[in-house]
Amino acid sequence: MAAAITLAADEPTLSAANTGFMLICSALVMLMTPGLAFFYGGMVRVKSTLNMLMMSFISLGIVTVLWVLYGFSLAFGTDSGSLIGWNSDYVGLSGIGITELWDGYTIPVYVFAVFQLMFAVLTPALISGALADRVKFTAWALFIALWATIVYFPVAHWVWGAGGWAFELGVIDFAGGTAVHINAGAAALAVILVIGKRVGFKKDPMRPHSLPLVMLGAALLWFGWFGFNAGSWLGNDDGVGALMFVNTQVATGAAVLAWLVYEKIRHGAFTTLGAASGAVAGLVAITPAGGSVSPLGAIAVGAIAGVLCAMAVGLKYKFGYDDSLDVVGVHLVGGVIGSLLVGFFATGGGQSDVAGLFYGGGLDQFWKQCAGVFGVLAYSFVVSGLLAFLLHKTIGMRVDEDDEISGIDQVEHAETAYDFSGAGGGAARTTVPAPAVDAGTKGETKAESKKVDA
C-alpha cells in the first residue's frame, strides 16, 4: 500500500503555469516563420519579394496538415528500430484525451504536439532562402511535403523521440541545432547543387532590396527564438528554461558584435545586413548548446559562431554554389559550431550532469556530438538531393530563364510587392487628361511629373 501511495504521489499532474507558458512559447515559435519570411523577403530583389514571402508562408499550411495526419506520430510515437516512431492514437490527433499529459511532464499532449508542430513548420521554410529567385512554387510546395515526411519527421525522432538513436546515444541538442538547422542547411546545399545557379550569379548585382525589412525579420526571429529555446525544456520548474533564455540573449549579442568586428576588419564597414545575419548566426549556434553552457560559455559560442559564419558566407563565391541568402553559411555552419562546442563548454550543471572538455569531462561528449552532427548532415544531404533530383527531372523545379529574368513574382503569383501606379504616376496617370498650364508653370509640372514617374 505504501508503495502504491508513493507511486501516486510521484505521478505528474497538470500544471496550469507550465501549460500557459508552453502555449505562449508555441505562439512565439509560430511567429518565427513570418519573421523568417520578412528576413528573407528583404534580402532578395524587388521582383522576387512575394515569392520569397510565400515560400516560407506556405509551410504553415502544408506542414500543419501533415503533422496532424501522421507527422506527430512518426516523430514522437513509439520507437521502431531507433529510426522512426508510430502511435495510432496520434494519427489525426484523434486518440488523445484533452487532459492527457505528455510523457512524464505537466503539460497536455496537445500542447507538446502544437509546440513541436511549429518547429516542423519552420525547418523546411529555412531551406527556401537558398533557392531564391528560381524555383517553381508548385514544385517547392511538393518538395516541402516530401521533405517533411521523409527527412524532418524521422530526424526529429532520432534527436528528441524516446528510442531515437541520437537520443539514446546521448547527443545533446536542446532545441534544434541538428534536427532543425543542420538538417535544413544540409538540405539547402543539396538542392542548390541539383538546380544550379541563378541567372547572372557573380555577374549581376543581387543586393537586398529592403534592409529595413531584413532588420524587422531579424527582430521577429530574435523575439520568437526565446519561445523556441526556453520552451524546449517544457516548463521551468528547475530553472533550466531560464538559463536557456539568458543564454539565448547573451550568445546572440556576442555574435552580432563578433560579426560586425570581422566585417569592419575584412570589408571596412559595419552593415545592417551584417548585424542581422550575426544575430541569426548566434541564435542558431546557441540553440543546441544553451541548456548546457554558462552565460560566459554562451558568449564564447556566440562570438565563435559570429566570426566563422561571417567567413563561411563567402565560400559560395569561392566554390561556385549559389546559396542565395546564406542558408548554408549561417544555418548549417552555425548549427555545426553550436552542436560541437557543447563538447567543450558543457558545464555539467545545466540540463544534465555531462561536462565538456573545458570542465573536466574529456572528449567523450564531443565524439557523441560529432556522431549526431554528421549523421543528420549526411542523411539530410543525400535524401534531400535525391528528392530534388527526382522533382527536377519530372515536373521541373526551376522556372524558365526568361521568367526568372523578368521576375518570379509576376510569373508564379501574378502580383508585385510594390505598386506605385495608384500614387499619381505611371499607368494610372495616363488615363487622366493633362491639366492646362501656362508657360510659367510648365517647367515645374514636367519636373514634378518626372519625379513621380521615377
Tell me about this structure:
The chain has 454 residues and is mainly α. It has one domain: Ammonium transporter fold (Orthogonal Bundle). The protein is 67% helix and 1% strand. It contains 18 helices and two strands. A two-stranded antiparallel sheet has the order 1-2. Helix 3 crosses helix 4. It is globular, with a radius of gyration of 24 Å. It starts with a helix and ends with a helix. The N terminus and C terminus are likely disordered.
Describe the SSE topology.
Layout: H1 2-10, H2 16-43, H3 49-76, E1 78-80, E2 84-86, H4 109-127, H5 137-160, H6 165-169, H7 177-195, H8 211-230, H9 240-267, H10 272-289, H11 295-312, H12 315-319, H13 327-345, H14 364-394, H15 401-406, H16 408-413, H17 427-430, H18 439-453
Antiparallel strand pairs: 1-2
Subunit structure: Homotrimer.
Domain Ammonium transporter AmtB-like: 21-418
Subcellular location: Cell membrane
